[in-house]
Amino acid sequence: MKSIVFAIILFSHVISILPFVSNARDGKIPNTSHFASISVMLYYDFGLALEVVGITDNSKFFTPFFNGDDSLMAASFIIVLLAPWLFHIGANFTNKKSGNKLVYNYLHLKNSTKPLFYIVVIFISLYFAFSGLSILLQNEPIWVVREKVGERWGALIVLLYLPIHFLGFYTRQEDSNTKVGLIFSFGLVIASILSTSAIGQRTNMLLPILIIVLFRKKISLAKIGIFLVIAIIAVSLLLPIFKWQHADSKSSMVDLITETITGDFYRGAVLATALEKSQFLGSKIMPYPMAGYVYSVLYYVPRQIAPFKGSSTSQTFTSDIVRTPVEDTLWAFGVGAIEELLLNIGFLWCIPGLIVYGMFMGLLDKLSFHIPSLLIPTRLAAIWLCGYESSTVLLMFGTMAGVGLIFHQLFVQKNITASLRKLPL
């Protein structure tokens, strides 16, 4: 039975990514909803495959996807099966075009402000890179460093991501296509890794490399597949360094990879548990329906100004599971867009909620067509969508879009952005 359910889900998801493949083959960057369909596969299908062969993370907190009662598994099956199609349906309401024709065309930095651009980017990136390096040279465990950095920077921790945001903007510029530009891009990759290493998130080590792999040249499934394999192996090897639970572990490489997939790239068990803690309509554990989204909208507003903004969905969810007060729960389980909808508005509204997500994706397609500097953050946000809640996606890629928009206005030559030359493939 498990094998049949998984085969149906996998078949549906493979068909759903065909527009992604078609656009990449035609020399276009796929739409945001096409990237979101990749996100569904990434955060559900690999883990489901492991569950089918009997491999789970044996967590005491979560109900495995295939181990719930019949009604729970049926609900999980319907949502996961339909998720990428609901994104596509919503996107079609707001954007009828398929693929962004500007995919392999670069923007041009204005000659008048180009020196200022490089001065700003180099100075800020070097500052945060050396700051991160100095912290690492103290030779303390990453989990200890992460706590200290969080206390030191607070909400300003978003500044540590600036080199990544600079890279996301620069990768779409004509300058980055030169040999010197490639060297500069790799400098930004190193600066990004050093700057964010103390935050203690392994994905921060891979994100700048992903930007280069996906968006500097032609997108292809082969490149994505190769990067994914290397990325899973890399984050698995980093597990004992970044997680205190594995510091003295003697786990084999296979065990580390399995735990990485089930722990970092799988939301099936989280989905089943979120369904258990959801109502058919409304919210069971949130203070009020949509409370998690109110928090996300007010994310950048200091709590002194908006004391009513509450807590994130993942923090509230984690608090309910581990039975600790929300304000004392300083960590959170990974919750994606689907689980966030379930916990905030219930099963009935989850499906139209995913369509609304798709509608926003269509609007982002139009926006990034007119402002190509937003192309990378919108597509990366879609990849992260099913693995992380809205506030986390906003923290990373909303800020990246904000930096890209400011830099676009300050440094991009406007009179040629609509007629850019095509790069050789």
What does this structure look like?
The protein contains 19 helices and no strands. The chain is mainly α and 425 residues long. The protein folds into two domains: 1-104 and 270-388, no CATH class; 113-261, no CATH class. Helix 1 (2-16) packs parallel to helix 4, helix 13 (268-276) packs parallel to helix 16 and helix 18 packs antiparallel against helix 19. The longest helix has 25 residues, at 70-94.
Task: List the topology elements.
Blueprint: H1 2-16, H2 18-25, H3 32-52, H4 70-94, H5 114-136, H6 142-153, H7 162-170, H8 179-197, H9 202-215, H10 221-237, H11 239-242, H12 253-264, H13 268-276, H14 291-297, H15 313-322, H16 337-345, H17 347-370, H18 375-384, H19 390-411
Instruction: Indicate how many domains the architecture comprises.
Output: 2
Query: What is the H-and-E element order?
Result: HHHHHHHHHHHHHHHHHHH
Tell me the major beta sheet: none
Strand content: under 5%
Tally of DSSP β-strands: 0
Low-confidence stretches: 417-425
